[in-house]
User: Which sequence fits this backbone?
């Protein structure tokens, strides 16, 4: 049984994408997954499954969410080992303020050309590192909330689905997935 984290894109950020976490846990459990837990209200689900293919898991969750709630929600999957590697690979050691250190999880690793072309908009002071399917983001002068280097910006620049979590959530999810 492999432990996974499902990261849902855009859940509970507006009135049209509301999903109760108890309902989400039920849907994931009904798919046959075990020890299903949610973290916060922003679409983080930790579960165990014998399924080995992350794409199959993501498509199954997306289909179930559409069927149950009538919402089209992209789902990104990482297993416990991948999440532990994200935490261990933090390129900004000593930076753990969750308002200043975030990770954008990507649907796939961007091409080298797309990653190299990624820049910070305007004159913002943002440090970022593209590492495989993640983009670590450090905001030394302020929080993510005032930045234009947002999840939507990353999606547009990289041409793929992304969902961003603050460092506190990333660490908590890694711990929950580790069991």
Assistant:
């Amino acid at each position: 049984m492999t432990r996974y984290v499902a990261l849902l894109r855009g859940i509970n950020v507006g009135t049209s994408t509301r999903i109760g976490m108890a309902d989400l846990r039920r849907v994931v459990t009904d798919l046959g997954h075990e020890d299903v837990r949610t973290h916060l209200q922003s679409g983080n689900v930790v579960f165990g499954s014998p399924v080995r293919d992350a794409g199959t898991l993501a498509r199954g969750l997306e289909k179930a969410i559409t069927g149950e709630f009538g919402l089209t929600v992209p789902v990104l999957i990482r297993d416990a080992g991948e999440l532990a590697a994200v935490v261990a690979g933090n390129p900004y050691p000593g930076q753990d303020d969750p308002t200043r250190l975030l990770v954008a999880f990507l649907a796939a690793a961007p091409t080298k050309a797309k990653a190299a072309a990624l820049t910070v908009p305007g004159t913002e002071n943002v440090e970022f590192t593209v590492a495989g399917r993640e983009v670590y983001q450090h905001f030394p002068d302020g929080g993510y909330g005032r930045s234009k280097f947002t999840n939507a910006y990353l999606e547009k620049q990289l041409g793929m689905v992304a969902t961003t979590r603050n460092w506190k959530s990333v660490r908590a999810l890694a711990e929950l997935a580790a069991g």
